[in-house]
Amino acid sequence: MKAVALTQYLPIEDPESFFDVDLPKPEPTGRDILVAVQAIAVNPVDTKIRAGWGSGQGQIEDPPRVIGWDASGRVEAVGEDVTLFKPGDEVWYAGDITRPGCNAESQIVDERIVGRKPTSLSHAEAAALPLTTITAYEAFFDRLRIDRDGADKGQSILIIGAGGGVGSIGIQLAKHAGLVVIATASRPETEAWVRELGADHVVNHREDMVGQVRDLGFTHVDHIAIFNDMRHWETAVELIRPQGGIVTIDDTDQPMPMDGMKMKAASLHWEFMYARSMHQTQDMVEQHNLLSWVADEIDAGRIRTTVSQVLSPINAANLREAHRLIETGKAKGKIVIERF
């Protein structure tokens, strides 16, 4: 099968950072399904791992390693214990960071972290969503305990980094739950993007966010999601309401003073969407359930895709370009690559 792989963890400018390769097609067993990949999307986690995040730097991969964690495709075959899917089903998923990724014609993935693809979306439109959808859904509804179905209607949420992939679907999920969304954006095009997705208010995260939010009439906000990095930690602590909650998706080596959190009895939550698959938690199937719920909401017209750019075909050159665009820090929505 065709695949895009790496053997070294290199800067994206290096032509050897990705290369095209032929690999044996895997066979599913147990609860695994084999998916014929139709489209993939690129996320910041892809760029970090390609650059050697964790233990990768300096390591040589033999055989070549396939990464990638966002895909839409069609089930080719199933393991003997699979009950959720059958060959021919169209699916979407974000995979498992401990297993070979989706930058290949065929991929093995556990059925419990796979959802039914929205019928109203193309494979390219669908591939833009799984990883960011799982991340934002778990951040809001599992970590912050916001009620998905509207019981917390009218509460406020500040989404820092709202124009990126997670923020783009996060705005929609927060609005679906009835929240008042304050989104951050620093460029005219990202401000227009987050407003288009449903943000009620927009503030510039490159300026005084505390002053801007309070000028909107909010002394504090009920919830805060940090979907870029932790530069804005002290701002978030200042703005969170007493007994409110902050969720973040990024690790940091920056100071995170906790005095303000303690005085407010506020809570800090970490969201890592691979925790369930990495640790084989008993509730792994919740990712199947949430992806299938979001598919229903998309098909009902209540949530839209966040794809902003589509490249074709899936090959090393286009994957290098997608990683380069992500690493500029200026991408809005999601970058997708379709068809081998």
What's the main sheet like?
7 strands, mixed
- How many strand elements? 15
Cα shape: globular
Low-confidence spans: pLDDT under 50, at least 5 residues? Answer: none
CATH overall fold name of the largest domain: Quinone Oxidoreductase, Chain A, domain 1
Distance between the termini: 10 Å
Task: Please state the second-level CATH architecture of the largest domain.
Answer: Alpha-Beta Complex
Element string (H = helix, E = strand): EEEHEEEEHHEHEHEHEHEHEHHEHE
Structural class: alpha/beta
* The CATH top-level class label of the largest domain: Alpha Beta
Cα-atom radius of gyration: 20 Å
How much beta, percentage-wise? Answer: 15-25%
Indicate the percent of residues in helices: 25-40%
Please give the domain count.
2
- Average pLDDT figure: 96
At the fourth CATH level, what is the homologous superfamily of the largest domain?
A: Medium-chain alcohol dehydrogenases, catalytic domain
Work out the helix count. 11
What does this entry show, briefly?
It contains 11 helices and 15 strands.
Features:
15 strands, 24% strand, 7-stranded mixed sheet, Rossmann fold, Quinone Oxidoreductase, Chain A, domain 1, 6-stranded parallel sheet, alpha/beta, 340 residues
Task: Chart the SSEs and their pairings.
Layout: E1 2-5, E2 19-22, E3 32-42, H1 44-50, E4 71-78, E5 90-93, E6 106-110, E7 114-116, H2 123-127, H3 130-143, E8 156-160, H4 165-176, E9 180-184, H5 188-197, E10 201-203, H6 209-215, E11 221-226, H7 233-239, E12 240-248, H8 259-264, E13 267-270, H9 275-278, H10 285-299, E14 307-311, H11 316-327, E15 334-338
Parallel strand pairs: 8-9, 8-11, 9-10, 11-12, 12-13, 14-15
Antiparallel strand pairs: 1-2, 3-4, 3-6, 3-15, 4-5, 5-7
